[in-house]
Amino acid sequence: MEVILRTDIKGLGYKNDLVNVKPGYGRNYLIPQGFAVLATASNKKALAENIKQAAHKAEKIKTEAVNLAEKLQGITLEIKAKIGDSGKIFGKVTTLQISDALAVSGNRDRQKEN
To answer: Could you confirm whether domain 1-74 is CATH 1.20.1270.10?
Structure first.
């Protein structure tokens, strides 16, 4: 019996995998629990479309991340913090401090352009 997995199942496969299982396992456990659906022609088409959309979404996210990385490439941030005698920072640099430093850096760059 051929089924399409809806979730990752240890020892069987991952989400959206097309797998062959014994009919009893598929009918009595996987399908009633919602872990799989029968691999009919329409379900296979839906699976292909879902995979296509997921790939498109992943590509879009990757492109946005690459663009952001290019913008951040030349930026140097200076964040003031207390340090000990050995040169180590007391505490930590938080995301809020980084965000504020990026905002100040961005404002400075805009003022230079004007």
So the answer is: no
Residues for the chain: how many in total?
A: 114
The CA-based dihedral angle spanning residues 104, 106, 108, 109, taken in that order and rounded to the nearest 10 degrees: 170
Domain residue extents for the chain: 1-74, 75-114
pTM equals 0.60
Helix (H) or strand (E) holding 95: helix 95-113
**Non-local CB neighbours of 9 within 8 Å, separated by 6+ positions:** 30, 35
Q: What is the pLDDT of residues 91-113, one digit of tens each?
A: 888 999 888 888 887 766 655 66
Q: Which residues touch 50 (CB under 8 Å, ≥6 apart)?
A: 16
HSE value, Cβ hemisphere, 13 Å, CA-based, for 103: 6
